């Protein structure tokens, strides 16, 4: 049984609509965070790590840091624009 299924015994411990929406929002936020991290990881790795090894060079480390910062900033700008369009 997954977290959204009602018990098969017919008991009254079913999720309320509010609980269901809370769980759904949590799962969506987690999925978004995982997708965001995977995208950033892939894009920044491809851009910054030219010779993979057991550790990052100083230039690779600063490149990854700048890349992640720019991606987070761009995502914030896009989110603000989308939210302002909805209003």
Key attributes of the depicted protein:
87 residues; mainly alpha; 2 helices; Tim10-like_dom_sf; chaperone; Tim10-like; disulfide bond
Q: Can you tell me about this structure?
A:
The protein starts with 16 loop residues before the first helix and ends with a helix. It has helices spanning 17-48, 58-86. The protein is elongated, with a radius of gyration of 20 Å. α1 packs across α2. It is built from two helices and no strands. Residues 6-12 have low confidence and may be disordered. It has a domain at 52-86. It has 87 residues and is mainly α.
Give the distance, in angstroms, between the N- and C-terminal Cα atoms: 39 Å
Helix-strand makeup class: mainly alpha
State mean pLDDT (0 to 100 scale): 84
Radius of gyration: 20 Å
Quickly count the helices.
2
**Fraction of residues in H or I helices:** over 70%
Order of helices and strands: HH
What general outline do the C-alpha atoms trace?
A: elongated
Unreliably modeled segments: 6-12
Beta-strand content bin: under 5%
Largest beta-sheet details: none
Tell how many strands the DSSP assignment holds.
0
């Amino acid at each position: 049984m997954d977290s959204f299924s009602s018990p098969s015994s017919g008991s009254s411990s079913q999720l309320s609509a509010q609980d269901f929406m809370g769980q759904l929002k949590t799962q969506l936020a987690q999925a978004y965070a995982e997708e965001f991290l995977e995208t950033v990881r892939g894009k920044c790795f491809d851009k910054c790590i030219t010779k993979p090894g057991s550790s990052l060079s100083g230039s690779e480390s600063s490149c990854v840091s700048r890349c992640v910062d720019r991606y987070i900033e761009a995502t914030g700008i896009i989110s603000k624009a989308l939210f302002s369009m909805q209003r």
